[in-house]
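Supplementary Note 3. Input sequence used for the single-chain structure prediction.
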Amino acid sequence: MDPFPLQLGLSDHPGVALRRLEESDWRIELQLARVEDVPRWTMYPADLDEHGARLRAARNVRAAEAQRGVRYVVDERGDALGTVGFGRSDDGFEVFYALRPEARGRGLMTSAVTVLAAWLAGQGETVVWLSTLDGNAASEAVAVRCGFRRFRSGTHVDGRRLTVWTRALAASISAD
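The predicted structure, written as discrete structure tokens, is reproduced below.
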């Protein structure tokens, strides 16, 4: 597998790019943890402080360097709107994402997830998956728009119910 790209463009959103999260991007980690619904629907801890945000960013940089996964900042002309990425597991790659409220409703996550899936397909991956906590209608809508299908129900490590979604990746898909 090629190294994870440092940057990916969103052709349908001029001025928006996915750039690899670096340690200096700890502030977006902290901002997202403080958005009321982000910890509820994601793995962002509600009690994240600056020290924890710095550690979280550093951990994500190390994961990218080791090719275990990558987190990107959704960047609009220097403004960090959120994060999107994927992590490697025994079953392939899982996609995850979070946006600040003022950036929602623009199709950014649909575009970002589509671009990440295309890059993975170009690397020979045949399937990508994501999990949504039950009741997260916005995240479920992203999954559907990106071509994911419900695969199974399950339980999050903290006991919350979730749905696992999968998307087959066509070999002919390639990243821009």
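Residues 12 and 111 are 7 Å apart (CA to CA). The helical segments are 26-33, 38-41, 50-65, 108-122, 137-145.
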